User: Which sequence fits this backbone?
């Protein structure tokens, strides 16, 4: 697993960070706007935002004194691709295991 994927999954592990991302799906927002719904300090929200930035899930731009954030969905797409690959691998493995058990059941005489 790559460091990018590790950072993405770690960022998504927290409900506050997921809520921030959900808000950003509606468009660009100021840091203070993102912090408003949470019952935590602005400093705490900033720490969550830094983790989202580390995962490249948000992009910050400055307009004067304002810090504006936008969603970058590319790391989510990469995580989804990894999850789908894992799902396909496990589905094939479990189907093969089921076939083995079914064949064994068919060979056993009834009791």
Assistant:
């Amino acid at each position: 697993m790559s460091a990018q994927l590790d950072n993405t999954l770690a960022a998504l592990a927290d409900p506050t960070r997921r809520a921030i991302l959900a808000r950003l799906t509606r468009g660009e927002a100021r840091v203070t706007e993102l912090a408003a719904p949470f019952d935590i300090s602005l400093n705490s929200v900033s720490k969550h935002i830094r983790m989202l930035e580390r995962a490249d899930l948000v992009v910050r731009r400055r307009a004067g004194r304002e810090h504006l954030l936008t969603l970058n969905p590319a790391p989510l797409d990469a995580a989804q691709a990894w999850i789908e690959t894992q799902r396909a691998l496990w589905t094939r493995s479990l189907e093969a295991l089921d076939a083995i058990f079914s064949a064994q059941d068919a060979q056993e005489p009834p009791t």
